[in-house]
Every structure is written in structure tokens, then in C-alpha cells.
Amino acid sequence: MSRPTPLHEVHKSLGATLTDFAGWLMPLRYGSESAEHTAVRTAAGLFDLSHMGEIHVTGPGAASALDYALVGNVGALEPGRARYTMMCDAGGGIVDDLIVYRLAADEFMVCANASNYLRVARELTGRATGFDAVVDDRSDSYALLAVQGPHSQEIVAGLTDADLANLKYYTGLPGTVAGVEALIARTGYTGEDGFELFVGAGDAVKLWGALMEAGAAEGLVPAGLSARDTLRLEAGMPLYGNELTAATTPMDAGLGRVVRFDKPGDFVGRAALDGSEPTKRLVGLVMKGRRVPRHGFAVVDADGAVVGEVTSGAPSPSIGRPIAMAYVTTTPAAVDIRGSHEPVDVVDLPFYRRKK
Predict the structure, then answer these.
(1) How many domains would you assign to the chain?
(2) Model pLDDT, residue 15
């Protein structure tokens, strides 16, 4: 049975279409998903991300434990900074992609995907053996709200005394938003500026209401998973289970930069990843026609031979044509959509980059 988030009754009152996602009952859309998408690109959207996992790692050996458990150089983070990284298995396959926030010298928070956070917590516990560190899965005590879009700073700034203007991308600070204690992080999954607000589960409804009221004049709308997916696709951001899997290495995904071989000590997957070459490459496809490529559709070359597979695909409100990400072994020419080879333009990722 799907678990409701702390904002479940709010979503019902707004008439959201609800769906199961990774065992959670989540809002898919509140009305028009393209309107929600466009609002995030032009004004702001408010997302319930309370299905994500929050795992704290504390103690004198916390940094060393995380440097062993993850591929990134987490120990080099200053307090208040965050880093996108990955957990890999011994063979180099991706267990999950994560954001790690360093809250203090001996305290970190690992934000994991909803579909993987239980495994991530188990793996972190096992990999921390021998380090002076404690792993504590606190996911059930958190709610996570995200305000994303070009007007997000104005909206959140009206509810907090925190210095948002000087809060850089991939940083976070403790503060109070609408009277609610929060970790205010300048992170997101939409390709736009924005904030992710980690708060106690019991404060979620109060904060949602305050944000919607403060954002009314700025065009803030509630946004669901459908808009979040098209936004992250346009921004070329990978999704676990699509672009990232246990059969995929960071190098395959074009994310070899997150693997830090220069950090001190060993880490899980190092031997497999060191010197490894990608077996495929992730590319962007823009359809020349109107038909939409979907996850799992075959990608073919000019001779009709299968050379890859679509990992994510959708109509793009910003581009005006259907787009897709796909893993390929050579240059693609078309996507096989139910027996018809629909021609594509191959483009560099991301499809969309916001103006700064």
C-alpha cells in the first residue's frame, strides 16, 4: 500500500491526481502538467518531495566513512556546502545518486532517492564499520518542500531572515522559514534556481500554506511529478532507474567527473572504475516529427540497426518538440516507435539551460 506524505490532505484538497511512486502516494499533477512546467520556467513551482530519504552520518569518523562509501570527495566539503555524488557497488555499478550536505564538522546528511534510500541506509551502515561514525536514517521525521523557478528567491526571502542573496548553488544553512525551523538548501532538480527546504514532518502543512500565500503574487503554483520529470529531462538531469542503474557506471552516464580518484584512501568501486572506459554514451535526441519516444524504445542507425535505447522521453514544453535521452554505442538516426523509424537530431545535453 502506498504511503501518504505529510501533505497528503493538502494534495487531495487541491484536486491532485495521485499516483504510486516508489511506494509513496504522490501528486502527479494538479491540473495541466504543461502549465505547471511553464510556471517553473517563468515564475515558480512548489513541489512536495517528502518521499526522498534523509540519512545522517555523524561522529569523528563520519567524513572518512563517507569517503569510503561514496565515490566523491565528501571529506573536502566545508560545513554549509553540498555535493552531488554517487554510491557504487564493488563492480562500479550505480547504487544511487545522492546529494550530501555537510551540516557541521562531524555531521553530514545524505539525501537519497525514494526508491533507494532504505538500501542506501543499509549500505552506509555496513560501509561505516570500522569508522568512528553513526548512521541514522531519519527519513520518517522529515518533510521536504522545493520552491523552484526564477521567482523562488523573492518568495522564500519574504518568509525568512536568512541571507538568501549570498547563498550559493549547492550550499545550505539552518534558518527559520515562516516560523518553521529548516535546512535551507540552494539545490534542485529542475534546471532552475530554487530552494529545497528540509523541515520536520509536522511542519509541512504550515510551511506549504505560507509559501503558497507568499508566492501568489509571484505566480507560484503547486507542481507534481509529471512537471518535475519534464523539467529535469530538459535540464539533462539523470533519473535513477532510467539513466542510472546498477548496470551503468558513472562513466557510461557521462558523470565520471564525480568519481574522485585523487581523494585519500580507498572507496567502494574504485578498483573497477579506475581506468575503466564507458561502454556506451548518453546523448540527447530531438524528434524531427511529433511522435514521442518513451523509455525502452529502440534507437537505430541509418541502416536500421539497433544501436541503443531510450532511457527517458517526453514532449518538451520549452523546446516545442518531443525529446529524449538515450544510451547509444554509435551515431543514432531514428527511434523505433511501434515499428516506424522516426528521425531525430542528436544534440548535446542539456536541452535547456536557464539564463543567469
Answers:
(1) 2
(2) 98
